[in-house]
Structures are given as structure tokens and as C-alpha cells.
Design brief:
Order of helices and strands of chain B: HHHHHHHHHHHHHHHHHHHHHHHHHH
CATH superfamily of chain B: Sodium/glucose cotransporter
Number of helices of chain B: 26
Structural class of chain B: mainly alpha
Structural class of chain A: mainly alpha
Radius of gyration of chain B: 23 Å
CATH topology of chain B: Sodium/glucose cotransporter
Largest interface: A-B, 47 and 53 residues
Helix content of chain A: 40-55%
CATH class of chain B: Mainly Alpha
Largest sheet of chain A: none
Number of helices of chain A: 4
Order of helices and strands of chain A: HHHH
Oligomer: heterodimer
Largest sheet of chain B: none
Radius of gyration of chain A: 23 Å
Number of domains of chain B: 1
Number of strands of chain A: 0
Helix content of chain B: over 70%
Number of strands of chain B: 0
CATH architecture of chain B: Up-down Bundle
């Protein structure tokens, strides 16, 4: 609690503040997460599963792809850590448009 | 499963195991998870969606091409690669990149500056009711037909996996997509599209590399294609010569024209200008991605940034098709003129190339990843078609013309009914799509009907202030009708329903039908504009080039960015790269 208080006090709009970064919702974390899980599965398949070398022409394709996916996954997660997406403090609500009939748009929370 | 097991009529095409199904299931967990989290986050705070508005340009750019990287692109282009060889790259380097750059540099300021949110809406502002109605109806119909293509390809994957008959697979696939749309997948559409892009690349890149390894690298692939093209069976079946399959120009294999010069003109004018500009610059689904960004500068850069990955997509879809044509027995037989059994429609078609190649070269594990990638692409494609249809149907058609003043809930309900109705109709349009051996022929024909006249009306209306509302709707409908008539007269644009009076078939016929529509539209629009009353000039600001002040069209902030983040330099780099690629292949 005191920690929160402290960070809110000395930096108002700092990207490290949870309210102002996309955090877990950052698309890069989603990409890194899914590709990472795939990487683990394929690496394990490459190490312990049937390599089916007759299909791949002699490559342990699961292992190579799995390792490549892990590298890509690490890249995305690191990128998201190093440069978090900052949500702007103020965003204009959608504009009403007379020429386009449709349900009136009310921004949620109003 | 035990109930459905009774349905098995054919052996499964692909032998997937538990690991493969786990990988596929994980993808669904992520997609649904994003949807559900989006729904929860929206009631708690705005952060989830607001973060969407501050997404960097690479995300909107990827979403822009990902919206298009669906069934058509993946299956259609690999089918083209198998059937025609490398000349299928024209669909990317001639048929997409220049139009995407044009959209970013020239047209986006009008879309963004006039604050319209859909293409039919721009039509309404510029030309009024007539053109709006024609555009909205033809767009809605086109979406239903294209949704059918996506559904058919989705069904063929389900069939390949489980061995069900096509009609059962179609219904099951339709139900899956319906639940995917209603489960909130769409509220996180952009997220899913970007995620989908990476899953597809992760699926297709290993497939391409392993396939190349099997045939002995690119040189080995060339040798095998050359060898195959000279076999007596291939010669008897009129397979394009090795030169035509291995060099993109003049692309006679693709157009079916006897003369090289005509073929180049057909590709540059028919595909490169009319079809592709029509598709990329007026397609609601695509353009909307860019319109949603936060400044004119970002909107203009969206298609331009998308152009860079787009340039390299052919390497992971066309090359696998070419490999399939020499490595997969069924496709070899098909190309030699036989009709091997199997595939989605009973006999193997070129559209099955990619699935069959996956079966032959991918070990379990990677196989699941590849299937997940394909399912992702087809579902997202169909979901985009259906949701675009229901937006245009409920607001542009139902509310504007049929029931004007009802409650929000009422139109929401209409939208839901439209979704169910459209999915149902798509099952039937999927059956139409299944009767075309190369799905791209079918789609190019469709695009020719709808997009080519739309582009003609657009471009004339944007740059000629005297073009009148009457000219708008007459030009559009006459263009579409003329393309339909041309398709009927051609050899095979409508399959067996075509009369064959004009002795051109295949994709050349689609290019010509589109060019006809374009020319008819322009000529009629000019003639009618000279006889009828134009809109008052005051109403054309932001809609017509000469009536829009220059400062409305550019972003004053852009000069502050470093050169490599500005619209024009980026577009120039893309153009140089794509020209270099054309010379290289």
C-alpha cells in the first residue's frame, strides 16, 4: 500500500504506473505468451517425440522451430518490458455523425 | 465423438495426434481469452481499448494486412503457385503494393479528413442516396459470397482433419464461427489479427523451409519444375512451360493470353490498376483499419507499413504451392491431367495443395501449429466478412431505408439476426465456391463485378467536381452489370454457366471483366455528368480534391518526425524494393 502511495506521489504520469501502461494487456505480451508456449511444446516434441526425419528430409524440424519460437517470444516479452505501451491520459470520445444513422454511441462509464 | 464417428466416410487426410490438438486448442484459448478479457476490462476501465488507440504503427500496419491474410491469400495463392508457378507473385508485387501505397499517399487524407467511417458513407456524402444504395447492396452481397469462400476453406480443413463429408464440415464450421463472433472475439479484433499474423508466419515459414529442404533448395525446386514440365503427361495436359513457371514476367501462365505483350498489359492494367486499386482503396474492411488510427499521418502510414511484410508474404505461400506441385503425388497427378481422388470435394483440387504438403512434410507438433494457423486465418476472414455485412446491413440499409426511428436495442437485435442469417447464407455460397477448382479465379471474378466500378466512380468523383449524383449511381450499376455480362460471355468465369462467346478463360477473363466494368463506368459517368446537375461546390469540401484546402490533407506534426517515419519517404522505399523484387524474379 505504502509503495503505491509513494509512486503516485513522486511521478504523476510515469509509464511504470500500472494505470497508465497497457501492462498485461499489451499485445506484445499476448504474442510472446502464445509463441512461448508453442516454443516449449515443439522443443519438447523435438527432444522426446518422433522426429519423422523421412518427412522433413533429415531435419529435427520441431526442435529448430521450437527454439526459434522461444527466441521470438523472449524478444517480444523483453520489448514490452523495456518500452511499455503508454495509454494516453486523455482520448477524445467518438464523434456523433449526423450523416451516418446508427445507435447513439455513449462512451462506457457515462 | 462416438456419435460423429458414424459420419466418417473418408479416411482423414491429415493424421493429427494429441499434441497437434493441444496446440490448436491453445490458440482458441488465447483468442477467446482476449475476447473475454476485453469484455471484462471494458466494464472496469477504458484502458484496454484506449491502449488500442495508442498502439504503435507496426501494430495497425500488421492488422491492416492481417485482415487480408485469410483463406484467399493462403489457399488461393498456394493454389496459384502450384498451377502457374512464380507468376502468382503479381498478386502481391503488382496487385497489392502499388495500390496500398496509393491508398496511403493519395486517398487516405480524403477518407480521414472527411471523417466518414465507411466506404458507403463516403458515397452518401459525395453522391447521395442512389450511389449509396447501389454500393451498400453490392457490398453486402459481395461479403456474403466471400464469406462463403472462407467458410468453404474452413470446412475443407475440418474435413481434412476429421474426415467428415463437406456439408457436415460446413455446418460445423459455420457454428464455430458464429460462436466465435458472439463470444466477443470481435471486440478485440485488432489484437486477434496481430496475433494471427505471427501464428501464420510461425506456421508457414517452417513449412516453406522444410519443403525447400526436401526438394534440394530453390535450385532443386527449379530443376524439378523444369523436369516435370517436360514430361509427356505434363505437355499433354498443357502445363505452362518451365520458363513461364519460373519467371514472373510476362505471366502468360497466369493470364492465359497467347501474346506476351497482351499479358503484360492485362496484368498491369487489369490486375495492377483496376482490380487491385479497386480492392485496396475501397474495401471497407481494409480501409477501416487505417481510419481508426489517431492522426492523418498514422492513417496514411498504416497501409505503407503494411506493404513491407506484404512484399514477403508470397515467399511463404506461393513457394509452398510450387513445392507441392513437384513433391505431392496427388498434385503432380492433377497437374498431369488426372483427377486423383481425395481432397475437400471428392477429387483433389489445386486449393488442396497446402494441406497436402503439410501432410507430407510436417512432423506432428509442427502439423498442429500449421493447422492452428490456417484455422485462425479462415475464421478471422469469415468473421470480418460477416461483421462487415451486418454493419452495412443494419445501419446503411435497414435503418436508412427500411425502419428509420427505432431504439438502439432494436438495431442491435437486427444486427444479431443479420449475423445468423448471413452465416446461414454463407453455407450456400460456400457450396458455390466449392465448384471452382482454383478459388482465386472465382474471387477475381467477384472483385471485378464490385470493386472495379467502385474504384472508377471513386477516383472520378474525387478529382472531378462536376461529376453528378446521377452519374454516380448509374456508373456504378452499369459497371457491375457489364462485368456480369462479360463473365457470362467468357469461357469459364461462371463455370459451366458461361456461354464461351469470348474465347478467354481463367484469370485473364477476370482481369478483362474488371477492365470492362471500369471503362463502362468512366464513360457513362462522364456522359451523364455533362447532362445532369452537379452538387453545389460548397458541399464538396473534403470530398473532392480541388475543393479541399491543402492543409486539410496533411498532418502539420509530420515534419517534426525523422525522415524514416514520414509517409512519402517510407512509400518511396517500399516502391523501390518492390521494383527490385520484380527484376529479381
Amino acid at each position: 500500500m505504502t509503495d503505491n502511495q509513494h509512486s503516485a506521489d513522486d511521478t504523476e504520469d510515469a509509464p511504470s504506473d500500472g494505470r497508465h501502461t497497457a501492462g498485461a494487456f499489451d499485445i506484445r505480451n499476448f504474442i510472446g505468451g502464445l509463441l512461448g508456449i508453442y516454443g516449449v511444446i515443439l522443443t519438447l516434441m523435438g527432444l522426446f517425440g518422433d522426429q519423422e526425419l523421412n518427412k522433413t528430409g533429415g531435419w529435427n524440424a520441431n526442435l529448430y522451430t521450437g527454439l526459434a519460437l522461444l527466441v521470438v517470444s523472449a524478444f517480444f516479452v523483453t520489448w514490452a518490458r523495456v518500452k511499455p505501451t503508454v495509454v494516453p491520459a486523455h482520448v477524445e470520445p467518438p464523434v456523433e455523425d449526423e450523416t451516418r444513422p446508427g445507435p447513439t454511441v455513449h462512451p462506457p462509464g457515462r | 465423438m462416438s456419435v460423429l464417428a458414424g459420419l466418417r466416410t473418408a479416411d482423414t487426410l491429415i493424421d493429427a495426434n494429441l499434441v497437434d490438438y493441444t496446440i490448436i486448442a491453445l490458440y482458441f484459448v488465447f483468442v477467446m481469452g482476449i475476447g473475454l478479457m476485453a469484455r471484462r476490462a471494458v466494464s472496469d476501465s477504458l484502458d484496454f481499448f484506449l491502449s488500442g488507440r495508442s498502439l504503435p504503427a507496426w501494430v495497425t500496419g500488421l492488422a491492416f494486412i492481417s485482415a487480408n491474410l485469410g483463406a484467399v491469400e493462403i489457399m488461393g495463392m498456394s493454389a496459384n503457385g502450384a498451377q502457374f508457378g512464380i507468376s502468382a507473385v503479381h498478386y502481391f508485387w503488382v496487385g497489392a503494393i502499388p495500390a496500398m501505397l496509393f491508398l496511403g499517399v493519395v486517398m487516405m487524407p480524403f477518407y480521414y479528413g472527411s471523417k466518414v467511417r465507411s466506404v458507403p458513407e463516403f458515397m452518401f456524402r459525395r453522391f447521395g442516396t442512389g450511389a449509396h444504395l447501389v454500393n451498400a447492396i453490392s457490398f453486402a452481397v459481395a461479403q456474403l459470397l466471400i464469406a462463403g469462400v472462407n467458410l468453404y476453406l474452413l470446412g475443407s480443413i475440418v474435413q481434412a482433419l476429421l474426415g467428415w463429408p463437406l456439408w457436415v464440415a460446413l455446418i460445423v464450421a459455420a457454428v464455430i464461427v458464429l460462436s466465435y463472433i458472439t463470444l466477443g472475439g470481435l471486440s478485440a479484433a485488432i489484437y486477434n489479427e496481430v496475433l494471427q499474423f505471427f501464428v501464420i508466419v510461425a506456421a508457414l515459414l517452417p513449412l516453406t523451409l522444410i519443403g525447400l529442404n526436401r526438394v534440394g533448395g530453390y535450385q532443386g525446386l527449379k530443376d524439378k519444375i523444369t523436369e516435370f514440365a517436360s514430361t509427356p503427361a505434363a505437355v499433354a495436359a498443357n502445363v505452362p512451360s518451365a520458363d513461364q513457371q519460373l519467371q514472373s514476367w510476362p505471366g502468360q501462365a497466369l493470364t492465359g493470353f497467347g501474346s506476351g505483350t497482351l499479358s503484360v498489359i492485362g496484368i498491369v492494367f487489369g490486375l495492377g490498376f483496376v482490380l487491385s486499386f479497386g480492392y485496396w482503396t475501397t474495401n471497407f474492411v481494409e480501409v477501416q483499419r487505417a481510419m481508426a488510427s489517431n492522426s492523418i499521418s498514422a492513417a496514411r502510414k498504416t497501409p505503407i507499413i503494411g506493404a513491407f511484410p506484404k512484399m514477403f508474404v508470397p515467399f511463404i505461400v506461393i513457394i509452398p504451392g510450387m513445392i507441392a506441385a513437384v513433391l505431392v503425388n496427388e498434385i503432380r497427378e492433377l497437374k498431369s491431367g488426372a483427377a486423383p481422388a481425395g481432397g475437400a470435394s471428392g477429387t483433389v483440387q489445386y486449393n488442396d495443395s497446402l494441406i497436402l504438403l503439410m501432410r507430407d512434410v510436417l512432423p506432428n507438433g509442427l502439423l498442429g501449429l500449421a493447422i492452428a494457423g490456417l484455422l485462425a486465418a479462415f475464421m478471422a476472414g469469415m468473421a470480418a466478412n460477416i461483421s462487415a455485412f451486418n454493419t452495412v446491413f443494419s445501419y446503411d440499409l435497414w435503418q436508412r431505408y427500411i425502419r428509420k426511428d427505432h431504439s438502439d436495442d432494436y438495431y442491435l437485435r437486427i444486427g444479431r439476426l443479420a449475423t445468423v442469417g448471413a452465416t446461414f447464407v454463407a453455407i450456400f455460397t460456400a457450396i458455390i465456391a466449392s465448384s471452382f477448382s482454383n478459388i482465386m479465379n472465382y474471387l477475381q471474378t467477384l472483385f471485378g463485378f464490385f470493386n472495379a466500378p467502385l474504384f472508377a466512380t471513386f477516383i472520378l468523383g474525387m478529382f472531378w467536381k462536376k461529376m453528378t449524383p446521377t452519374a454516380g449511381w448509374v456508373g456504378l450499376s452499369a459497371g457491375t452489370i457489364s462485368a456480369v455480362i462479360f463473365a457470362f460471355l467468357s469461357k469459364d468465369s461462371f463455370g459451366s454457366a458461361s456461354l464461351g462467346v469470348i474465347p478467354i478463360g481463367g484469370q485473364g477473363a477476370a482481369f478483362l471483366a474488371a477492365s470492362t466494368a471500369f471503362v463502362v463506368d468512366i464513360v457513362l459517368s462522364v456522359l451523364i455528368s455533362l447532362k445532369t446537375e452537379p452538387k453545389p461546390v460548397a458541399e464538396l469540401r473534403g470530398l473532392v480534391y480541388s475543393e479541399t484546402p491543402k492543409e486539410d490533407l496533411i498532418d502539420p506534426e509530420e515534419v517534426k518526425l525523422p525522415w524514416f517515419r514520414r509517409t512519402i519517404p517510407l512509400a518511396s522505399i517500399a516502391l523501390v524494393l518492390v521494383i527490385a523484387l520484380n527484376f529479381a524474379f
